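Everyone, carefully examine this protein record:
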Amino acid sequence: MPYFLGVDGGQSSTTALIGDETGRVLGSGVSGPCNHVGAREGAEKLARVVRGCAGDACRAAGLVLEDIRFRAACFGMSGGPADKEALLTSIIAAERLIVTHDALIALAGAVPDGVGVIVIAGTGSIAFGRNAAGVTARAGGWGYIFGDEGGAFDIVRQAVRASLRADEGWGPATALREPLLRASGAADANEMLHLFYTAEWPRSRVARIAAMVDRIAVEGDAVARSILLEAAGQLVGLTEHVAEQLWQPSEDVRAAYIGGVFGSAIVREAFAREWMRVGGRRSGTPLLPPAAGALLEALRTAGHWVELRDVPELKTGAE
């Protein structure tokens, strides 16, 4: 029996699914995060994580990883495939090995047949699309210095800026200041600003404060709400730019959204309203999580356009 492997290699965890040619999921495994592999320690960690989650998935399916040559395997990797393909080839035996980025596998599972646009808003942001001809396009994903508009880090950055302006008297009053100080443990806005430049506050930690910004907005703060509405507008802009590259204005385009930012009802509802307004287009949550998308890509590569069955409960959103 031919077997297929799909792996979602993320910055918070790595998930593997094994399936057969009918689309039945036979086993799953979860291990730690996949980081960049430029350093030796990173490469060793990636190898250990992949062997761990793929080995667990094999055991759940009654298989042994070292004895299996997959018909096709697809890895969607956070940070891109460029520095990982050679290492993965040495770990996984497959007739066809696809190493791609995490946005493609997120799209593959998110919409029917993997045709549409996925917008990811976790710590950062990116939009990625694929049309029926297999042509792809992307917008954003430039990182926190030059882009990531609408991501959680950017939301917190805008909240800190608003708090600093209010503190200095040249911005509107906002209820964000005191909760931000409590969250950071700072005595004042200036100390908070400098804390966020230190190694103790990496981007992922700063980004988690976005949930607090959402809470303040729900409680009625106009500045916090405007920050979230602006984030939703920027995410629609990324999605719309991808759609413009791949479809005609009159064509129906399905968009799916994923990531912690969309946990905000304000962002989620504003995104849906604006996406509908720009072309009467539909949006919603992904049909399947990224690991399932990776398995579908592996199956589709071998000519098996099937629906997955027996998919376990998996994490469905990017941080």
In short: The first helix runs from residue 40 to 60. The chain is about 40% helix and 15% strand.
